[in-house]
Write a structure and sequence with these properties.
Elements (H helix, E strand, L loop, with lengths): L2 H28 L7 H22 L6 H28 L3 H22 L16
Helix pairs in contact: 1-2, 1-3, 2-3, 3-4
Length: 134
């Protein structure tokens, strides 16, 4: 897979995860006070998803500094892990929407932490996932 396609897929995954998390959170928090809280949740989710997708895409650019690249890959890992876990638990296993969201969020956090801790962070990082040797 080319670098450009990989960057788009990861940005899209992270953006969709952010859209779902932001949209559902705002909708559920506003529901006791606003009858059609979904009309607040959808725009909030769209804005959050757009910002996260743009941040991941910029962070994975070829000329991105190593620290920004590391954060973008961690964020993308969160998004992809969250979406995969949500589809499996919510769609295939059918454990319930709330439990699937909570477990998916936890799985995303674990994935992001593991990716962030395992990625090189110094100047030896060359931007394509490999480490330069001196």
């Amino acid at each position: 897979m080319s670098s450009y396609v990989k960057r788009i897929v990861l940005a899209l995954g992270a953006g969709i995860a952010a859209f779902l998390i932001g949209g559902v959170t705002v909708t559920e928090v506003a529901r006791p006070w606003i009858e059609f809280s979904l009309f607040l949740g959808i725009p909030t989710g769209l804005a959050l998803g757009t910002v996260v997708a743009a941040a991941v895409s910029l962070g994975l650019a070829d000329d991105a500094p190593p620290r920004r690249h590391r954060i973008a890959v961690s964020l993308a890992g969160f998004g992809v892990s969250f979406l995969v876990t949500l589809v499996v638990l919510g769609g295939l296993v059918n454990i319930g929407a709330i439990l699937a969201l909570v477990v998916s969020f936890a799985a995303g956090l674990v994935a992001a932490a593991v990716i962030h801790l395992r990625r090189p962070s110094g100047r030896e990082f060359d931007g394509d996932g490999s480490v330069e040797s001196d």
